[in-house]
Design goal:
alpha/beta, globular, binds 5'-O-[(R)-(carboxyoxy)(hydroxy)phosphoryl]adenosine
């Protein structure tokens, strides 16, 4: 070990995934993610159950991340953790665990904004090309749909965001109506592969400027299913692939309209995606075609770094550590943290 090596332990516990990762000089040595299957029974995340599950998961998850990285705890340079946004009870578990471990190891703890981390995950040292500033950041997850002007690691300005549901929430709520499990996003993605995206048409909401809306599509979708089920009770079963492909196209068309408006208006030629919905295979296919036609650089995280993970928290910890940032041990979680 060189004395200059920087080892960061990242801890993520903002929603329903307990995750711990170790990075050496910005390179991932381990990234352990335990998702909480208990929520599948409820069709969505139950906050009280999420915080209890984090409590029982956190120590084993950290132990496996340290073991897989093949280091000892006293080699760590710092611990970074998600301060927010997220569920209060869930955030408390990761924050307090990190502060206590940092105190006992006598190393700094570094707070991280979960939404910044979804975009900065692209700066992990993995030999791949990294985005250059400025770029349009597009965060698409279960809790957020945000368009961000990113001028530097920590110079981020929101250009627009959802005025109601997030795109992932729309996927999940439409999937719930179809009787699919939670989270429904990946299930819709899969079923849609065998479907005709032009079979059913849903209206696109008209929202001025950079903001976006998803509750209208969800309501139109629910009304459409109710109407068709009255005529044919087997409507969903008989058309599931086409229904999934058509609603997925609508949700992604809506997103792409805003992406186009914002990169053009802000004179940007790089677009960086983050968050669970960026795992969507139909979106990826469209973006590859779109980037070629419009001569754009598009960055989509690899699957393990799209949905919630601690490697993204650790890379932000690494970037802040190099700038000598330290959190106060009195810092408390911030469920509505913004930039
Ligand atoms: O970023 P994330 O793991 O957690 C939040 O911070 O919300 O995102 C979870 C969201 C869920 O709504 C899930 O349905 C969606 O990402 N998602 C997908 C796909 N994989 C995950 N949505 C569409 N297609 C996918 N392949
Ligand atoms: Zn997230």
């Amino acid at each position: 070990m060189s004395s200059k090596d920087i080892y960061i332990l990242g801890i993520e516990s903002s929603c329903d995934d307990t995750s711990a990762a170790v990075l050496k000089n910005g390179k991932v040595l381990s990234n352990i993610i335990v998702d909480q299957v208990i929520h599948k029974n409820y069709g969505g995340v139950v906050p009280e159950l999420a915080s209890r599950a984090h409590l029982s998961n956190i120590i084993p998850v950290v132990e496996s991340a340290i073991k897989k990285a093949n280091i000892s705890l006293n080699q760590l340079s710092a611990i970074s953790f998600t301060l927010g946004p997220g569920l209060m009870g869930s955030l408390i578990v990761g924050t307090e665990f990190s502060k206590a471990l940092g105190l006992s190891l006598k190393i700094p703890v570094i707070e991280v904004n979960h939404m910044q981390a979804h975009l900065l995950v692209h700066f992990i040292n993995n030999g791949k090309e990294k985005p250059t500033f400025p770029f349009l950041g597009v965060n698409i997850s279960g809790g957020h749909t945000q368009f961000i002007l990113v001028e530097d690691y920590f110079k981020m300005t929101i250009l627009g965001q959802s005025i109601d549901d997030a795109i992932g929430e729309a996927f999940d709520k439409c999937g719930k109506k179809l009787g699919l499990g939670y989270p429904a996003g990946p299930l819709i993605d899969n079923l849609a592969k065998k479907g005709d995206e032009k079979k059913f048409k849903f209206p696109l909401p008209k929202v001025e400027g950079g903001n976006i809306s998803y509750s209208g599509s969800k309501t139109a979708f629910i009304n459409f299913l109710n109407k068709n089920q009255v005529k044919n009770e087997k409507f969903i079963n008989e058309n599931i692939n086409d229904i999934c492909a058509s609603i997925q196209k609508n949700l992604i068309d809506n997103l792409m309209t805003k992406v186009e408006l914002l990169y053009v208006n802000n004179n940007l030629s790089s677009i960086v995606f983050g968050g669970g919905v960026s795992a969507n295979s139909y979106l990826k296919k469209r973006l590859i075609r779109y980037s070629k036609i419009n001569n754009l650089k598009i960055f989509i995280p690899e699957l393990q770094f799209s949905t919630d993970n601690a490697a993204m928290i650790a890379i932000v910890g690494y970037l802040k550590y190099k700038e000598s940032f330290k959190s106060n041990l009195k810092s408390t979680p911030s469920p509505r943290l913004t930039f």
